[in-house]
Design goal:
eight-stranded antiparallel sheet; about 140 residues; globular
């Protein structure tokens, strides 16, 4: 199972960090003339956090969610108040251990689906054996 490390709130010393926002989108295809102006500041907490009282950052360890764009060492912004639905990426507690998986609600029961073919899905069966701790909303993936 993938484990979660370093649960912490998103607030950075209780203060928002303003960042400059470019006034235009930057194409990822062919280069275009550079735009040398910025349209203002953005507070990442306001942009990424919908409910400050129930939002946390968790660090992912393991490779079972690579197909969903979640890599070892990435951080997820998760919301404990958000209702999980079929297809949600969740932080689940199963047999006392936390794991990050895609929640699948099937006719046969609940399945925690890995997004890497090297890892098996976890067939839970009934809801009673599973606790969904939070629903993932954003993945913070650092570039090398």
């Amino acid at each position: 199972m993938t484990s979660i490390q370093n649960l912490r709130s998103l607030e950075v010393e209780g203060q928002p960090i303003p960042l400059l926002v470019a006034g235009t989108s930057i194409p990822a295809g062919y280069p275009s003339p550079a735009q040398d102006y910025f349209s203002g500041e953005i507070n990442l907490s306001d942009y990424l956090i919908h409910d400050k009282t129930s939002t946390f950052i968790v660090r992912v360890s393991g490779h079972s969610m690579q197909g969903a764009g979640i890599s070892d060492g990435d951080e997820l912004i998760v919301n404990r108040a958000r209702k999980p639905v079929d297809g949600s990426i969740v932080v689940a507690v199963l047999d006392g251990e936390m794991t990050v998986k895609r929640l699948r609600l099937t006719p046969q029961g609940v399945v925690l689906q890995a997004e890497n073919p090297e890892y098996p899905d976890i067939v839970v069966g009934e809801w009673g054996a599973l606790s969904v701790w939070a629903v993932a909303e954003t993945c913070i993936h650092r570039l090398n």
